[in-house]
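ligand=zinc ion
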Amino acid sequence: MAILKILKYGDPVLRQKAKEVSKISKKIKTLIENMIDTMYANNGVGLAAPQVGESLRIFVIDVSKDNEPYNPVVFVNPKIIKKDGAICVKEGCLSFPEAFVNVRRYSDVKVKALDINGRPFVLDAKNGELMAYAIQHENDHLDGVLFIDHSRNIFEATEVLKANNLPQLEDDKLLNEADLEELILQKEAADKDKER
Ligand code: ZN
């Protein structure tokens, strides 16, 4: 077991597109086990291999609560095969210590991947549950995309990054998510109607 060093925002590896894993060797298994240990040591919900300097298509997620047993899920060569709905969530990232920003996400995703033994599985995460947006967050890391690229309010994101002494937003990386934004606005309006 080893706790790995987590790269911080500004490190170029975080912007690289990661490579597929061709074989789950002993070395890859050790990397995955160390990633799980590193995630727990930092109280994270998820961790992607590029965050520990390995540009490979692997991430781990554990959405269990504090009073529940550990339940790590390993994703090797994941592919999001379906996405639907929209939500706004406040996310953080172990590569952005203490910085939490509102981002746009799909509320439902279906992902297929290999587990640590190379067995394929499909996972459905719905209704904006933590697993649904954690998968999107971690999968993005494999393509060099970071959660702040999904910022819903660039003024908020700018302030949060500044307050935490992190590098500023990269304007050319910001994603135009007009369709997601429209769905989120509709949902917010419907929620407000319900309150009346
Ligand atoms: Zn992250």
